[in-house]
Design brief:
Order of helices and strands: HHHEEHHEEEEH
Strand order of the largest sheet: 1-2-3-4-5-6
Helix content: 40-55%
Number of strands: 6
Shape: rod-shaped
Distance between the termini: 55 Å
Radius of gyration: 35 Å
Largest sheet: 6 strands, mixed
Oligomer: single chain
Length: 245
């Protein structure tokens, strides 16, 4: 348990000071009333008893200000005490959009957050390192598959996206892709070859976006985002196809 004595002491002292001021003001008011009604015996007795009671409260408040911890019994539901009793949170294995794992993509020159489930920090860094250090051949293949996805959407829609140029060459298509989140992990918690999905927005398909699926040091799929890594992994393992399958 965290030692929060100083915070508890400060809170009690603050509450005791407020009570001290209140009882002092009431005592002053009672003295004024007592002076005004001194000739009335019944009123005088009642005011004397009341003033004595509030004076006792005033003295206790002064003592509480001077030595807060000894008079903690006067106060309930101290916020500082409740904070001190909170149990430390268990360390979670999920680091959704965690600043420690976010990174700026070398290829896209954009910040990418990371969501990792049931995997270690070392494995997360392994996935990020792969994405950050892809070979020129892998980047060119990524660009080719992104271009194929773009041309497929353009052919289906019968129109081009107004913001995009008429012609795009090579890696220029990647200027119109905006990665957002790298999703890492699985229910079993096994850690083997690199596998993850990078969820992206893209200029030519604002509704479905784009995903980059990686497995075993390869980009195995580029296309509309569906978040189904297992499907594309099985396709890759059964056919050996890399890219848009």
């Amino acid at each position: 348990m965290k030692d929060n004595t100083a915070a508890i002491k400060k809170e009690i002292k603050g509450k005791a000071t407020a009570l001290l001021v209140t009882f002092a003001l009431v005592d002053v008011l009672l003295v004024i009333m007592l002076a005004a009604l001194w000739d009335n015996q019944s009123a005088r007795i009642a005011l004397l008893v009341t003033a004595g009671l509030f004076t006792a409260f005033l003295i206790v408040s002064i003592l509480a200000v001077c030595n807060p911890l000894k008079f903690k019994w006067m106060f309930r539901n101290l916020k500082s005490e409740q904070k001190a009793q909170l149990k430390p949170r268990a360390k979670k294995t999920e680091y959704k959009h965690d600043k420690d794992y976010g990174f700026v993509s070398r290829i896209f020159d954009r910040p990418v957050s990371v969501s990792a489930l049931n995997v270690s920090g070392d494995y997360v860094k392994k996935c990020i390192d792969f994405f950050q250090s892809m070979s020129d051949e892998q980047i060119d293949r990524l660009a080719d598959n992104a271009m194929a996805y773009y041309l497929e959407i353009r052919e289906c829609s019968g129109d081009t996206v107004s913001k995009m140029p008429e012609t795009l060459n090579g890696r220029e298509i990647l200027d119109w892709v905006y990665p957002k989140v790298m999703w890492i992990g699985n229910d079993e918690g096994r850690e083997g070859p690199v596998e993850f999905i990078v969820e992206c927005d893209c200029e030519w398909e604002p509704e479905h976006g784009m995903e980059i699926v990686a497995f075993s040091e390869e980009i195995i799929h580029v296309g509309a985002y569906d978040g189904d890594l297992d499907y594309w992994k099985e396709e890759y393992l059964s056919t050996g196809a890399v890219g848009r399958t």
